[in-house]
Design a protein that fits this description.
The chain is an all-alpha fold. 65% of the residues lie in helices and 0% in strands. The longest helix has 35 residues.
């Protein structure tokens, strides 16, 4: 039994040691620390298109990395933050913004949950009222 335990521990140790050998190196930040600071600030206001409820800065999805590379490229070309955001909105729509503006296209996004809550409350009220009315009738019949 002890030999089996020792063998299992050795195998586990080997597996753990070999898995760290396959870990990738940390990617270096860009050459320009000012550009990286701008990217970090700007990506806090942008949404990851894959994760949807995560900022571009917090996402580790491959598409998020591609978007960050695209933003770096635009910044190196001399585009301002507003121009970069405008480019992304033109390409992906207001959905790319973590806090989209309130307009006709995003009204459902902003007010939809409240409308569903009101409709659900109305339906619940009607069902409960109907259910209470049928109990009164049954009580009178007896």
């Amino acid at each position: 039994m002890k030999k089996l335990l020792i063998i299992l521990l050795l195998i586990a140790n080997f597996v753990l040691a070999s898995s760290s050998a396959f870990a990738g190196e940390a990617k270096p930040l860009g050459d320009d620390p000012v550009l990286e600071a701008r990217l970090k600030t700007l990506s806090q206001d942008l949404r990851c298109l894959v994760c949807q409820n995560t900022t571009l800065a917090d996402s580790s999805a491959p598409l998020a990395e591609d978007l960050r590379q695209e933003i770096r490229k635009l910044m190196r070309e001399g585009k301002s933050d507003k121009e970069v955001v405008d480019y992304l909105v033109a390409r992906y729509g207001d959905f790319v913004l973590y806090k989209p503006p309130v307009n006709n296209e995003t009204a459902l996004l902003w007010f939809g949950p409240f409308m569903l809550l009101i409709i659900g409350g109305f339906v619940l009220f009607r069902v409960l009222k109907k259910h209470a009315g049928s109990e009164d009738i049954q009580a009178e019949d007896v």
